[in-house]
Amino acid sequence: MKKFSLLLILILVLGFQDLSAQQDPQYTQYMYNMNVVNPAYAGSKESLSLTGLYRKQWSGLEGAPETITFSAHSPIGEKVGLGLSAIKDELGPIKETNVYVDFSYTLQLGAQSNLALGIKAGATFHDVGLTSLELQDPNDPFFSEDISNTYPNVGAGAFFYTDNFYLGVSVPNFLNSVHLDENGIKYGSETQHFFATTGYVFEISDTFKLKPSVMVKSAFESPLSFDANLNALFYDRFEIGASYRLDDSFSGLVGFQVTDNIRIGYAYDHIVSDLDVVASASHEVILTFDLFFNKRVLRSPRFF
Predict the structure, then answer these.
(1) I need a surface site. Which of 43, 171, 185, 272 has the fewest CB within 10 A?
(2) Helical segments of the chain, H only
(3) Distance, CA of 161 to CA of 213 (rounded, Å)
(4) What average pLDDT does the segment 257-263 reach?
(5) Which residues lie below 8 Å from residue 138, measured CB to CB, with a gap of 6+?
(6) What does the DSSP assignment read for 162-177?
(7) Residue 191 phi/psi, 5° resolution?
(8) Could you give the CA distance from residue 299 to residue 294 in angstroms, rounded to a whole number?
(9) pLDDT tens for residues 147-173?
(10) Which CATH class, in words, describes the domain spanning 2-292?
């Protein structure tokens, strides 16, 4: 009976991860972090692009999710793009690290229209720190060892873009994984996620642009998650915006292009779901560095 009770605790922990898997990866500033979920985005900019992101989910809730992301991508020649991403998630005693490489190939459909097709491959390193849990019986053998598993995975995507419009679809993880199989009962399993992103840059004047964007994501056989965003860009330097995540949160975003190479952004999510009782906010910071290959002015400055 005692073992059953302790196992129930573990199931709840792993089940909680399943609830958050619907939002994984969950980024408010997704429009500046797209190659993490869509390999076809790799190489779409005329630069070696490096991005670091930190997200504190449900701030104030002990053991709440924290995410650290690093990604890099670059064109190789005219048609090929390569990318790399590493994502570290922590949720209580659960730690998960995803490492992927991306490959994309771009087809030029017109003078300003491109269609990139991409694939990604990598692995997920999943750890559950059972020995770190505080229990009534610290000598219980079921919690005497941590759980560590490694799962390979592959994904694919497509990304159509012009100077001021983009549309992407992707499934970054085709293979299912099970984090714990206890007596034939599977807990903490992850399934495929589908992502669709689109956005447009309206040039209102030489100094003012509006940038609406949308992301739709879903774990198959689960409800859709929907993000709608509107950013205003002033003088190609300062950006402010607002976002809404369906049944989850309202967000405020600010960004600043410090130099031609460096951009920093921050997002504040005000939670409106049932979790607002214990945690009212999430925070996200992003830093991007672009190393341009040509000293000349870019053919088509990009704002996504």
Answers:
(1) 185
(2) 2-21
(3) 13
(4) 95
(5) none
(6) -SSEEEEEEES--S-B
(7) -120, 180
(8) 10
(9) 788 999 999 999 999 999 999 999 999
(10) mainly beta
Q: What is the CA radius of gyration of the chain?
A: 21
pLDDT-derived band of residue 132, with 50, 70 and 90 as boundaries? low
Q: What's the rounded Cα separation, in Å, for the pair 79 and 44?
A: 9
CA distances 227 to 75, 183, 207, 215, Å, are 29, 39, 27, 5
**Does residue 117 surpass a pLDDT of 80?**
yes
Higher pLDDT, 186 or 33: 33
pTM of the model: 0.84
Q: Does residue 85 or residue 135 have the better pLDDT?
A: 85
| Phi, psi (rounded to 5 degrees) for 300 | -145, 95
CB-neighbour burial class of residue 116 (10 A; exposed 0-12, middle 13-18, buried 19+): buried
Tens-digit pLDDT profile for residues 198-209? 999 999 999 999
The structure tokens 């030029």 sit at 108
As a whole number of angstroms, the distance between CA 184 and CA 16 comes to 20
Tokens representing 79 are: 């048609």
